[in-house]
């Protein structure tokens, strides 16, 4: 697996087009990651996430099974005369993950739930819209992703204070064309950025979450979890 960071030029028209359409961003990322990038295998899948650590800085993070080549993306949305992307072998880092370790983390995810549509019918996927439900969605699933969120004592009302922050809460709405029929429609994706500290409980499960993603809407920039030293 490979972990890459690509700097996008905020003044380029291509950058605006890719940021406005997660479908277009997903397509250019897949095109950068080899002819088999659209599949999912035991090693993992292509995941991506856009971060804005500063007002005029846009970073695209990508995890991919094959070594990427972002030349085409840079020509449309970067600085073609400068080296503005890095790719590193992800496997050595993944193999160093052990139970009990603490890491800082960042994840943009699509918190949803399935609402029953009646016996024998497929449930309707519904987004969590309140901050409390979005936090509960994340915390209640951490063990299934191989980690837990530590607490730092209690607030005045007795509720635990978790090492967790929510930001970037919003609804992304964009057009989507069906590659088979050519029909166009509208897609709405609720996105929340989670960041804080985690403690590893199951290294193998966490490695799977890091390379295969978390939650839904992975084709639209959700699900890529990244770690950094505390």
UniProtKB/TrEMBL annotation:
Pfam annotation, one family: CRISPR_assoc
Signal peptide: none
InterPro entries tied to this protein: CRISPR-assoc_prot_Cse3
Superkingdom in the source lineage: Bacteria
Gene3D superfamilies cross-referenced by the UniProt entry: Crispr-associated protein, domain 1, Crispr-associated protein, domain 2
Matches recorded under NCBIfam families: casE_Cse3
Name of the protein: CRISPR system Cascade subunit CasE
Organism field: Barrientosiimonas humi
Taxonomic lineage from the root: Bacteria, Bacillati, Actinomycetota, Actinomycetes, Micrococcales
């Amino acid at each position: 697996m490979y972990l890459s960071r690509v700097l996008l030029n905020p003044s380029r028209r291509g950058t605006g087009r890719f940021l406005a359409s997660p479908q277009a961003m997903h397509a250019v990322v897949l095109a950068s990651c080899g002819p088999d990038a659209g599949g999912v295998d035991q090693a993992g899948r292509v995941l991506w996430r856009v971060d804005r650590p500063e007002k005029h800085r846009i970073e695209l993070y990508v995890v991919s099974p094959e070594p990427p080549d972002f030349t085409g993306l840079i020509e449309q949305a970067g600085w073609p005369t400068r080296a503005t992307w890095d790719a590193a072998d992800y496997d050595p880092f993944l193999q160093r993950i052990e139970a009990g370790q603490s890491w800082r983390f960042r994840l943009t995810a699509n918190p949803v739930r399935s609402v029953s549509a009646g016996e024998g019918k497929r449930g309707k996927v519904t987004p969590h819209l309140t901050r409390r439900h979005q936090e509960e969605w994340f915390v209640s699933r951490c063990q299934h992703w191989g980690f837990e969120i530590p607490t730092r004592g209690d607030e005045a009302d007795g509720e635990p204070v978790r090492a967790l922050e929510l930001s970037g809460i919003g609804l992304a709405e964009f057009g989507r064309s069906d590659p088979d029929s050519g029909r166009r429609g509208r897609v709405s994706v609720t996105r929340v950025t989670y960041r804080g500290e985690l403690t590893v409980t199951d290294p193998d499960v966490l490695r799977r979450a890091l390379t295969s993603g978390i939650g839904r809407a992975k084709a639209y920039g959700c699900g890529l979890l990244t770690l950094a030293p505390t």
